[in-house]
Amino acid sequence: MDKSTVIGLIVGFVALLSGIVMKGVTLSVLLNPAAILIIVFGTIATIVIGFPMNELKRVPKLFGVIFKETKLVPDHEVIKLFSNWADLARREGLLALESKTSEVNDPFLKNGLTLAIDGQNADYIRDVLTEEIDALEERHAGGAHIFSQAGTYAPTLGVLGAVVGLIAALGDMNDIDKLGHAISAAFVATLLGIFTGYVLWHPFANKLKRKSKQEIRQKTMMLEGILSVLEGDAPRVIEQKLASYLSMAERKKVLNESGEAGLGKEA
Fold first, then answer.
1. Residues 212, 144: contact at Cβ < 8 Å?
2. Global confidence as pTM
């Protein structure tokens, strides 16, 4: 479970409902079937019209990505893995890594390692894995774009709902009390449109983009690690190269641990 998504949703709904109550408005005003119909089904309609069905089939999976914690291998473990592989390859040759492929669960990493063991040159491996990264990034961007577009349409549909409500309210102005209630209800659609657009759909799109960026960064790190092992770089060199993908604090920690381990071996 992605805690930040859940916490954000709870805080968002609590803020909205608390604000409504503090303004002296009853929560029952939100139970406006017409407004809900326009916002919910209107947003769904715009997305269905705007995207091909093969992309829309991924929406349930995208919700899973949003609400589930991304299971990426910790970066320091990736660096340590390549350092060990480099040490083994320098001592026994690349073919010694063939026994390690069965231990790799990541399809991208396994494919890259297999290409290196099969004797493919660095340019070919870089081209193949870069294409795979680009395809992954494009697929992720397409999923985020669906939610981004929903966030763009929902507030506008809220205005549309308010206009429909005002038309109905102003159609009968004989009863002033009913008129005020009808105008108030008309703006519920605007409220729902803005809330869903800027508290749900746009943040969901941003969460997908951030998770995609993390995965792409690690895949790029793996690509550089594979090429470094293929070129016969020393373990320490690979650690320094891959640590450049980390934050300064993480980089210092990884390199310090590596240095301490190296001193221990020499002793």
1. yes
2. 0.85
Structure tokens at 163: 């206009």
By CB atoms closer than 10 A (0-12, 13-18, 19+), residue 201 is buried
HEC string for the chain: CCHHHHHHHHHHHHHHHHHHHHCCCCHHHHCCHHHHHHHHHHHHHHHHHHCCHHHHCCHHHHHHHHHCCCCCCCHHHHHHHHHHHHHHHHHHCHHHHHHHHHHCCCHHHHHHHHHHHCCCCHHHHHHHHHHHHHHHHHHHHHHHHHHHHHHHHHHHHHHHHHHHHHHHHHCCCCCHHHHHHHHHHHCHHHHHHHHHHHHHHHHHHHHHHHHHHHHHHHHHHHHHHHHHHHCCCCHHHHHHHHHCCCCHHHHHHHHHHHHHHHHHHHC
167-181 confidence digits (pLDDT tens): 877 777 776 767 777
The CA distance from 177 to 78, in Å, is: 67
- Which of 44, 46, 32, 48 shows the shortest CA–CA distance to 190? 32
User: CA quadruple 165, 166, 170, 175: dihedral positive or negative?
Assistant: positive
Which CA distances in Å does 65 have to 27, 38, 70, 205, 219? 31, 27, 7, 11, 18
**pLDDT tens-digit readout, 246-255:** 888 788 877 7
Nearest to 77 by CA among 104, 59, 102, 52: 104
